[in-house]
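User
Please review the sequence:
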Amino acid sequence: MGLFDQDKWHEIFFALKKNKLRTFFTAFGVFWGIFMLIIMLGSGKGLRNGAMEGMGDLATNALFVWTKQTTIPYKGFPRGRRFNFNNDDNQALLDNIPEIRYLAPRLQVFGGEGNNNVVRGDRTAAFTIQGDYPAYNLIDPVDLIRGRFINDLDIRDKRKNIVIGKRVYDEMFEKDENPIGENIRIRDVYFKVVGVLSSKKSGRQAEDENSQIVMPFTTMQHTYNFGNTVGWYSITAKEGYRASVVLEKVKDLLRSRHSVSPEDDRALGYFNLEEQFRKMTTLFSGIDGLVWIVGIGTLLAGVIGVSNIMLIVVKERTKEIGIQRAIGASPGQVKSQIVIESVFLTTLAGYFGLALGVGVLELINYLLLQAGEGSKGMFSHPEVDFHTAVLALLVLVISGALAGLIPAQRAVQLKPIDALRDE
């Protein structure tokens, strides 16, 4: 009796159909276990996708540093002193900290809330204006719908060129109008549009980036009387170096250059994205591990139910097994029939649970996209990849085999003469 023996499969189907209600509830435990495993894995992936999309292509080894008030008197300066970074700090950082890969000084003026600061013809609006170096687009890239980003010549010549966000374009230009080369007035100064950007992030962060205007850092300093002031720094570490190590060197150098106590850690504000990214990655790995533990536990509960039912089936078919043994069936043949029946029931129920779970995830994803939330917030594109689905099916097959082993062993332990006497 081989795996593809018709008589064997006829007996299996007959046994399953003999008590349909019992077969249904036995299979439902396995179905529900794999269904919940797929739903939980897909939901975990949706949370991970939402968090990652919220970051866009922002470098995961980035760090940001800005000034605050001093809290410790130092070199004759009182506590509570305010200070600013300056252009000389730019080169000092690059010269003294070789672990820095990209350095982007930044300035921001005229926040997007409050009085209108941008005018074009009869259209006025309020947008955030950023002063940036080209390097910033390597640290936190955006998509360019039209034109280009700020370049080195813009910085050197203090050109009055700007890159506008997608929302700025929508409000200041007609649909399908070409903005490249057109002028926009910002606080009574005219600037030429050289590009239109679209954020790679999601949610509120994307809205903020799409509502900003980027001009050369040096142009902003010169045009709006910032002198040589730098608002804050965006920095990335070279490959092979930890951002936390670079951050400590940056803080030490900047404190030294601005006569801030080496012990005054609150005089500088900072954010280490690498550290936060590592915590987030660890969190999602923990969630995935917990999901597998809970999901497989639920699945095993169903498999144990299958094993228990197969024990009952073996007891009900004691006489039948005795006849098989009496006419020459080997212990291996009897055992294989019980195991194949268990694997078949488990795999069939699990397949439907897997298929329905994937279908529900696809439906959720479709509804999110239709509602306009597919690429926003902290939940996006719930899905289960192919390798996970294959692994889940493999777990099912192994579980089915294990579920049938105990009943199969019980069946072959029956002596033919005792089985034939069973009533």
